[in-house]
Specification:
Blueprint lengths: L10 E3 L4 E2 L2 H8 L5 E11 L3 E11 L3 E11 L5 H19 L8 E7 L13 H9 L5 E3 L4 H11 L8
Parallel strand pairs: 3-6, 6-7
Antiparallel strand pairs: 1-2, 1-5, 3-4, 4-5
Length: about 160
């Protein structure tokens, strides 16, 4: 997947409101103490393959703010390609948003939508995706703890947030 300018894309809040500038929105959400930023991507085939990338600004022990953007592909050739593309979208977002984080806020991790459980289809790609992200210098969280990708982004990509807020 070609590197994309993720921060120049159109971003939304979880309620669907358009974000004017994701850099400013994330900086503002990071105000206060005990913040960590987590990034994750999930995808779903609709008429075309829809990817949702989330930036979660989490206040430790209290919840967080969610921002998301969408990316589309006409088709997917394999599960492996889909998972690698999800990982790269998260990596691009992390690279591009990290310089705008306040000095006291860490980029906590990239959450990857892969499962180490051998009964899961994605398990055979777990190590590849894990080391792809880790090799770019980021901490990695995978299922079942990867809530930014496997819960929040999945919620949005399956259109569960539409009309609920």
């Amino acid at each position: 997947m070609e590197q994309q300018s993720m921060i120049e894309k159109t971003w939304y809040t979880l309620s669907g409101d358009k974000v004017e500038d994701i850099r400013d929105a994330v900086r503002k959400a990071c105000e206060g103490s005990d913040k960590v930023v987590i990034i994750g991507t999930d995808s779903q085939m609709h008429r075309r393959l829809e990817f949702v990338t989330t930036i979660v600004v989490y206040t430790i022990g209290k919840g967080g703010r969610v921002f998301y953007t969408k990316t589309f592909q006409e088709h997917v050739s394999s599960l492996r390609k889909k998972l690698v593309d999800e990982a790269w979208l998260s990596i691009y977002t992390a690279w591009q948003i990290e310089p705008y984080l306040p000095p006291d806020v860490d980029l906590g991790a990239i959450h990857a939508d892969v499962n180490p459980d051998p009964t899961a289809d994605s398990s055979k790609y777990h190590d590849e995706i894990y080391w792809l992200i880790k090799g770019q210098g980021f901490e990695v969280v995978t299922k079942p703890l990867a809530y930014a990708s496997s819960h929040i982004a999945e919620h949005i990509v399956k259109h569960r947030n539409v009309g609920r807020y």
